[in-house]
Amino acid sequence: MEPIWAWFGYDEPNYTYMKDGKKLLSELAELSPVPVYVRAHSLLVTGDGKPALKWGSTNAYTEDAKGKPVYDWTIIDRIFDTYIERKMKPMAQIGFMPEALSSKPQPYGHDWQPGQPYDKIYTGWRYPPKDYRKWAELIYQWVSHSVKRYGKKEVESWYWEMWNEPDSPYWGGTTEEYHKLYDYSMDAVRRALPTAKVGGPHVTGPQGKRGATFLKAFLEHCRSGKNYVTGKTGSPLDFVAFHAKGAPRLVDGHVRMNLGTQLRDISSGFQIVASYPEFSKLPIIIGESDPEGCAACGMQTNPENAYRNGTMYSSYTAAAFARKYELADAHQVNLKGAVSWSFEFEDQPWFYGFRDLATNGVDKPVLNVFRMYGMMRGNRVDVTGNLAYHTMAIRDSSVRRAEPDVNALATRDTASNTAAVMIWNYHDDNIPAPASAVDLAIRGLPTKQVTVTHYRIDEDHSNSYAVWLKMGSPQKPTPEQVATLEKAGKLAQLDAPAPVAVTNGTVRLKTDLPRQGVSLYKLTW
């Protein structure tokens, strides 16, 4: 079981080293048995380092009065130090364009707020450089500085990626200009560190014509195009990245998710990569893999995003990641990571409905799914069930029948004599429904007795949002209320550890699992 879930990302890099940002990063590092990879936008954007929604800056590159480059790594170091101190790994995004290098710099900054037109964010940071050699030297200096600061072995473990969604308004140039930027950037990375891992292009959903066309053009360039720097054929490529998003809607007063849309993006991307023999076994990183596309669009301005605070987000996440594994199996590709583009928003209203893992330092139910994943080790185990939707059926039609998707993901780790089974009760429609009776049989256990611990996310467990609502939704909770919310945000046990007899290699466990609930059974022997 490749820990594809241990990848996270966000738009606002300066949140990294703020109070709640550091707290959440510590929690992510603690819950994972492997180093967590972190991807952030705007690492080369010009500015004073003050965060804002959909904005961040490091001021890494400016020029003096004579046009001579001035490098300042202070803020980037502060960001990456925060990761490295927690044994996390940067997925180092090369972007966006510094003001002094942008071919169309003005206007440069923005003050976008939820509910405003989204195109307000697309300012001078998105354009190609006016001088590719200066740009390449910036990248060379950045990577060289990183090697000096963190060591060659550490930086070899990072992924250096080129830009974000260049098939969208995030890139103000042409496809060929992106290829040129990629060639100059990756040549600079490799000059500084020949063993660095480089890749891209982080296109939007490949099921769409725009994303698919760009991804194919990029792979063709890397395979057989003329390199803009060397003049030779092809460009270095160590991993392939694309994005995948769902599409929730408000239907008859309730939220209806669309897991199928996200899975079609993933399936289409896998199919494209698999069609290139040269690249079919490269690691694939789904650089943003989420229920929809705008983390900073809260439910007040976007009511279809009201799924984010409660257990629907957690059940969707459980069901989605299991299907990512199965789609990778079906397409026979090397899925390395799936980035959840969800972090936290510093000093914002409580439970505003951002797509985040915590609010004001209090963990939301979705974070507890990742705590569950952190307890799943070893190899995946076959699962069958009479209420489980087939992965391809969800990909093609989502979860729209009357019955929910009651299914599981299971692992066994022979090294530590443990097994784990995650079960979810998911449906696209977030409407009240009876709990589903689950009868779980775990076979092939090589012992006479196991200790079983049952963890649960539902309305009454691992759910800070439900507790906050019962408090009266305070926007200025007292210290005592905050302590209560923090406790409610942790992963809760439904049943304490208890011995269970194994009969003929089999354990039978029963529970009633509420709609949009998630259970994890951990077995040790």
Automatic annotation (TrEMBL):
Active-site residues (renumbered): 165
Keyword presence, Hydrolase: yes
GO-annotated molecular function: hydrolase activity, hydrolyzing O-glycosyl compounds
Pfam families from the UniProt entry: Glyco_hydro_39
Keyword DNA-binding appears in the UniProt entry: no
Gene Ontology biological process terms, A to Z: carbohydrate metabolic process
Keyword terms, alphabetized: Glycosidase, Hydrolase
InterPro entries with a match to the protein in the record: GH, GH39_cat, Glyco_hydro_39, Glycosyl_Hydrolase_39
Domain Glycosyl hydrolases family 39 N-terminal catalytic residues, every copy: 59-490
Family indicated by similarity: Belongs to the glycosyl hydrolase 39 family.
Protein name as it appears in the record: Beta-xylosidase
Origin species: Larkinella knui
